[in-house]
């Protein structure tokens, strides 16, 4: 990874890439590998986007932008990233603080038995869900998704309060996709994800990004707004991974996002929580707290945690999934498609909530398309 010096740029770059997160970094690596000269710029002082990790003052490896847990069903994505990192097997587990107990989420057999003092079998819990589920004619909202599967009481205890905090909206006002992401299980599987590949970069995400951007054809500029250097750095093609509405100077208004405030704490204890993340659907202003040493496997005599407070304003994290927002994005999508010499890729540029592996897959597909077009 080489820092770019404007005065030393002898010939044009083939690509100027805006954003050094997963989308931009994967495309930079792929393009450099086929002989393209790439300049990647980021307004932040570090690479890695929101997946960036670093050691805090106590020497604990933390994720400043909240926990990033890698999981995928794509062998192609996993094998691609395996060129740039070794892995530590890790299966994330989450508990929810409900009615004075810490209970597994996603809801499973143990959740129901412990919450209601029952001793159901897998078959019986399936019958239990069927008996409490509410009939919904057409599943349109996040509320519909949950109550049609597990009924009103579990919905109120585990989902409604969490969703209202996270989105600032009632689940009845949100697209079904929000809660459809969380499964319901009739067995005792307490893993948060069920993907085939579940692991964390052995030496952290930042090291992996350093390896991704280590090709001599890649130059990196940090603390840089691309608009200030776009015309100073000659290039053949722009790849943009930032907010699509900002690219077009919010011509049709701002696309709505939810943001997060992260409050980090370090404690003089080896461990505070039994699992990596504890959700608080009904109490406090924060939605969840995560303890990094579970996630990274680091051994340390102190421990660092992060509390997540959803916000209406701040860095864009989650596109708000409502029909009117999708319609607004379509206007920007049309502008993006009409823009010559620019490729839009990644979460913010396509106004979609993607997991990390999905962003990598999108970037790899974009590379293949660019290669096919001989850009």
UniProtKB/TrEMBL annotation:
A Pfam match: NAD_binding_8
Flavoprotein is among the record's keywords: yes
Domain of life: Bacteria
Signal peptide residues on this chain, from the entry's feature table: none
Cofactor: FAD
Residues annotated as domain UDP-galactopyranose mutase C-terminal: 157-353
GO MF assignments: UDP-galactopyranose mutase activity
InterPro entries on file: UDP-GALP_mutase, UDP-GalPyranose_mutase_C
Name under which the protein is recorded: UDP-galactopyranose mutase
Naturally occurring in which organism (per UniProt): Deinococcus taklimakanensis
Gene: glf
């Amino acid at each position: 990874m080489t820092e770019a010096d404007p005065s030393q740029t002898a010939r044009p770059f083939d690509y100027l890439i805006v954003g050094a997160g997963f989308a931009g970094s994967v495309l930079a690596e792929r393009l450099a590998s086929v002989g393209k000269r790439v300049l990647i710029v980021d307004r932040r002082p570090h690479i890695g986007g929101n997946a960036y990790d670093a050691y805090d003052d106590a020497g604990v490896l933390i994720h400043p932008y909240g926990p990033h847990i890698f999981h995928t069903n794509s062998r192609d994505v996993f094998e691609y990233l395996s060129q740039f990192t070794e892995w530590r097997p890790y299966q994330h587990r989450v508990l929810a603080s409900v009615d004075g107990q810490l209970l597994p989420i996603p809801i499973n057999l143990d959740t129901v038995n412990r919450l209601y003092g029952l001793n159901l079998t897998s078959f019986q819990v399936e019958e239990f869900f069927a008996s409490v589920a509410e009939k919904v004619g057409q599943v349109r909202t996040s509320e519909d998704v949950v109550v049609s599967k597990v009924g009103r009481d579990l919905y109120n205890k585990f989902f409604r309060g969490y969703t209202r905090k996270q989105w600032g909206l009632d689940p009845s006002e949100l697209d079904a996709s929000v809660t459809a992401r969380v499964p319901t299980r009739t067995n005792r599987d307490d893993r948060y994800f069920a993907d085939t590949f579940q692991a964390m970069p052995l030496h952290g995400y930042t090291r992996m990004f350093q390896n991704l951007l280590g090709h001599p054809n890649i130059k990196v500029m940090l603390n840089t707004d691309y608009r200030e250097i776009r015309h100073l750095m000659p290039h053949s093609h722009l790849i943009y991974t930032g907010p699509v509405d900002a690219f077009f100077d919010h011509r049709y208004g701002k696309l709505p996002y939810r943001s997060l405030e992260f409050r980090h704490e370090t404690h003089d204890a080896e461990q505070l929580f039994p699992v990596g993340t504890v959700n608080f659907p009904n109490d406090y202003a924060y939605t969840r707290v995560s303890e990094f040493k579970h996630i990274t496997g680091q051994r340390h005599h102190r421990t660092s945690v992060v509390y997540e407070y959803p916000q209406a304003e701040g860095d864009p994290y989650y596109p708000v999934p409502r029909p009117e927002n999708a319609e607004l994005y379509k206007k920007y999508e049309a502008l993006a498609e009409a823009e010559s010499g620019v490729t839009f890729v990644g979460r913010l540029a396509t106004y979609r909530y993607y997991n990390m592996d999905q962003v990598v897959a999108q970037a790899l597909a974009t590379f293949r398309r660019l290669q096919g077009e001989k850009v």
